[in-house]
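Readers of this paper often ask what the protein records in our data store actually look like. Such a record has a labelled line for the sequence and another for the backbone structure tokens. Nothing more is needed to write down the fold, since each code stands for a local backbone conformation. The record that follows is passed on verbatim for readers who wish to inspect the format.
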Amino acid sequence: MHKAEKRYEIGKVSDEEDAKQRQVKGILNKLTPQNFEKLFAQVQDLGIETAATLNGVISQIFDKAIMEPTFCETYARFCVQLSVALPEFTEDGEKVTFKRVLLNKCQEEFERGKREEEEAGKTEEDGIAITPEEREIKRVKARRRMLGNIRFIGELYKESMLTERIMHQCITSLLGEYQSPDEENIEALCKLMTTIGSLIDHSKAKAHIDAYFERILDLSNNPKLPSRLRFGLKDVIDLRNNDWQQRRKVEGPKKIEEVHRDA
């Protein structure tokens, strides 16, 4: 009898959790820089009181930021305010903080990106041939997700939600092996360096940054890379030489109707 009651309680909690996550999704679907404060208050009012709810909310924010990279800054700011507003939780005797869950999600997405890239290169799955068209769809999807993730990671670092050490780990991983550079990784590297370069390029990190740019210079002259990527790497070199000042103004987040129109 007690076990049956326990199952009922778990089911009830699960239903409540599902409803709460649907509400979060609805709010995030409407989030723009213009209505930020109003919608942030709505998420707060839902009551994020368990580690499970927190995990779900962070996963949803990641998915939105990755698929709508023009709003990465807004979603990063959303994370900052949530981390300040939410209490710490305890699960299985361990402390659960917003930053810890966020870091785990960053790592999970980074590894997922690599895995999806590998899968996109497969010519068959479970013994069934994969057509070139299907492989290209997978490749484009994996590339889009990886670039969105890297941009969001960069914006989270700019908001002090991630450490500089993590940024160096990302850069080192993306640079990879010089002999066989990965095109998607190089594109992501350019995106990350453009986003965070001005913050990590300081006197204490000079030896690391100089080493990165030796590799970047070599890669920019690597005939194995498409000209598009070589030019992208040269742009990053020029950006550093110009004290990380963009030569042209970078557009900020679009309004939600502009995103839908351009989709």
